[in-house]
């Protein structure tokens, strides 16, 4: 996203009249997710200054700071005490801040409830979408509401998922750890469910994609 992110963290980039992360905060609040943990590293102080404690979004925001880049799983593991509020059996929702999606997050409440009651069976529930042009190979397959690593047509992981903390038991605190290997191990053990989302979703990974999204909002005015 450079040069846009040279002086501004990606979640604070604007499309339409809001910052990317604000769309998530409004949707999460509407769905009843009121305790929000924001994990940050690069220019994280700017995120804290922009969003504050979350009061104006009708949520309560707590920040988990990375002193070094920990990758996705490492960052989640670092934030676990906040995400679970100290409860070893408390699943949580993760949403990547650098995507745009028109999704009702309340639809994930049943998955969170299921992960809480049956961690011996499932450790994660992923939202999959159609493969975007920049990622034609996709990530996973979906068969009868279960994620697999083989099949007939791939789908892309959206960056939205419900997780049980047990999934991160083997992550060493403070060590950079990618999420994909953990997921693939759990998928091999048949412990990851999923669902297909056909609505509006976009990975905002380049200035051109951000510009395109911004234009969509402008055209609607």
UniProtKB/TrEMBL annotation:
Segments forming domain Nucleotidyl transferase: 1-113
UniProt cross-references to CDD domains, sorted A to Z: NTP_transferase_like_1 (cd06422)
Entry superkingdom: Bacteria
Origin species: Nitrosomonas nitrosa
InterPro entries assigned: Mannose-1P_guanyltransferase, MurU, NTP_transferase_dom, Nucleotide-diphossugar_trans
Keyword Phosphoprotein: no
Pfam families with a match to the protein in the record: NTP_transferase
KW Nucleotidyltransferase (keyword) present: yes
EC code(s) of this entry: 2.7.7.-
Annotated protein name in UniProt: MurNAc alpha-1-phosphate uridylyltransferase
SUPFAM superfamilies the UniProt entry points to: Nucleotide-diphospho-sugar transferases
PANTHER family: SUGAR-1-PHOSPHATE GUANYL TRANSFERASE
Signal peptide: none
Keywords: Nucleotidyltransferase, Transferase
Gene symbol of the encoding locus: murU
EC primary class: transferase
An example molecular function term from Gene Ontology annotations: nucleotidyltransferase activity
């Amino acid at each position: 996203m450079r040069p846009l992110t040279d002086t501004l963290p990606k979640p604070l980039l604007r499309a339409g009249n809001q910052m990317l992360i604000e769309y998530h905060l409004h949707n999460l609040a509407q769905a009843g997710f009121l305790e929000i943990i924001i994990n940050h590293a690069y220019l994280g102080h700017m995120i804290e200054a922009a969003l504050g404690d979350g009061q104006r979004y009708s949520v309560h925001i707590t920040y988990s700071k990375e002193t070094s880049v920990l990758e996705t799983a490492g960052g989640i593991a670092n934030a676990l005490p906040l995400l679970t509020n100290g409860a070893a059996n408390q699943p949580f929702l993760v949403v990547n801040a650098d995507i745009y999606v028109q999704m009702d997050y309340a639809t994930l409440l049943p998955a969170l409830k299921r992960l809480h009651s049956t961690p011996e069976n499932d450790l994660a529930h992923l939202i999959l979408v159609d493969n975007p042009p920049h990622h034609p190979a996709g990530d996973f397959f979906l068969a009868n509401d279960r994620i697999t690593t083989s099949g007939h047509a791939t789908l892309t992981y959206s960056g939205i998922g419900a997780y049980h903390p047990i999934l991160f038991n083997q992550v060493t605190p403070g060590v950079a750890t990618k999420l994909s290997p953990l997921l693939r191990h759990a998928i091999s053990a048949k412990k990851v469910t999923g669902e297909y989302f056909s609505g509006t979703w976009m990975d905002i990974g380049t200035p051109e994609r951000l510009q395109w999204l911004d234009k969509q909002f402008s055209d609607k005015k």
